[in-house]
Amino acid sequence: MSITVTGTIEHRNIGTGAWALVSDEGITYEILRGADKNLLKSGQKVKVTGQVREDVMTAAMIGSVLEVKSFEAIASS
Predict the structure, then answer these.
(1) Which CATH architecture does the domain made up of 2-73 adopt?
(2) 37 neighbors 12 (Cβ within 8 angstroms)
Protein backbone atom coordinates (compact mmCIF):
# COMPACT_ATOMS: atom_id res chain seq x y z
CA MET A 1 0.00 0.00 0.00
CA SER A 2 1.37 3.40 -0.98
CA ILE A 3 1.67 6.21 1.57
CA THR A 4 2.58 9.88 1.35
CA VAL A 5 4.54 11.44 4.21
CA THR A 6 5.74 15.00 4.77
CA GLY A 7 8.70 15.46 7.07
CA THR A 8 12.41 16.09 7.50
CA ILE A 9 15.37 13.97 6.41
CA GLU A 10 17.88 13.02 9.12
CA HIS A 11 21.12 11.03 9.10
CA ARG A 12 21.54 8.74 12.09
CA ASN A 13 25.01 7.60 13.21
CA ILE A 14 24.03 4.03 13.97
CA GLY A 15 26.33 1.28 12.71
CA THR A 16 27.36 2.23 9.18
CA GLY A 17 24.80 5.05 9.22
CA ALA A 18 21.13 5.20 8.37
CA TRP A 19 18.83 7.75 6.75
CA ALA A 20 15.50 8.57 8.32
CA LEU A 21 12.40 10.53 7.45
CA VAL A 22 10.82 12.04 10.55
CA SER A 23 7.23 12.92 9.72
CA ASP A 24 5.56 16.15 10.80
CA GLU A 25 3.61 13.94 13.25
CA GLY A 26 6.85 12.65 14.82
CA ILE A 27 6.86 9.16 13.26
CA THR A 28 10.31 7.93 12.17
CA TYR A 29 10.73 5.91 8.99
CA GLU A 30 14.04 4.37 7.97
CA ILE A 31 14.71 5.06 4.29
CA LEU A 32 15.54 1.87 2.38
CA ARG A 33 19.08 1.85 1.00
CA GLY A 34 19.39 2.76 -2.66
CA ALA A 35 17.23 5.89 -2.43
CA ASP A 36 17.94 8.85 -4.73
CA LYS A 37 20.99 10.75 -3.41
CA ASN A 38 19.14 14.05 -3.97
CA LEU A 39 16.72 12.96 -1.24
CA LEU A 40 19.45 12.15 1.29
CA LYS A 41 20.26 15.64 2.58
CA SER A 42 20.07 16.03 6.33
CA GLY A 43 17.61 18.77 7.35
CA GLN A 44 15.81 18.78 3.99
CA LYS A 45 12.01 19.11 4.24
CA VAL A 46 10.30 16.73 1.80
CA LYS A 47 7.05 15.13 0.71
CA VAL A 48 7.68 11.44 0.01
CA THR A 49 5.52 8.80 -1.62
CA GLY A 50 6.51 5.22 -1.03
CA GLN A 51 5.72 1.86 0.48
CA VAL A 52 6.33 0.60 4.01
CA ARG A 53 8.25 -2.67 3.66
CA GLU A 54 7.30 -5.10 6.40
CA ASP A 55 9.38 -7.83 4.73
CA VAL A 56 12.69 -5.96 5.29
CA MET A 57 14.81 -5.79 8.44
CA THR A 58 17.79 -3.50 8.99
CA ALA A 59 20.68 -3.24 11.44
CA ALA A 60 19.63 0.27 12.55
CA MET A 61 16.00 -0.61 13.33
CA ILE A 62 15.04 3.06 13.83
CA GLY A 63 11.53 2.77 12.45
CA SER A 64 9.43 1.16 9.74
CA VAL A 65 11.40 0.73 6.52
CA LEU A 66 10.17 3.06 3.77
CA GLU A 67 10.90 2.31 0.12
CA VAL A 68 10.77 5.70 -1.59
CA LYS A 69 9.05 5.77 -4.98
CA SER A 70 9.09 9.56 -5.48
CA PHE A 71 9.74 12.72 -3.53
CA GLU A 72 9.69 16.49 -3.79
CA ALA A 73 11.67 18.99 -1.76
CA ILE A 74 9.57 21.55 0.07
CA ALA A 75 10.91 25.08 0.37
CA SER A 76 11.32 26.12 3.98
CA SER A 77 9.48 29.24 4.99
Answers:
(1) Beta Barrel (2.40)
(2) no
Q: Residue 77 has what pLDDT? A: 58
Eight-class DSSP state of 69: E
Q: Distance between CA 77 and CA 49 in Å, rounded?
A: 22
Q: What is the mean pLDDT of the chain?
A: 95
Q: Is the dihedral of CA 8, 22, 67, 50 positive or negative?
A: negative
State mean pLDDT over 10-21: 94
Please provide residue 59's backbone torsions phi and psi, each rounded to the nearest 5 degrees: -75, -35
The 10 Å Cβ neighbour count of residue 31 is: 25
Q: Phi-psi bin for 45: left (phi > 0), alpha (psi -120 to 50), beta?
A: beta
- Taking alpha carbons only, the member of 21, 16, 23, 30 closest to residue 62 is 30
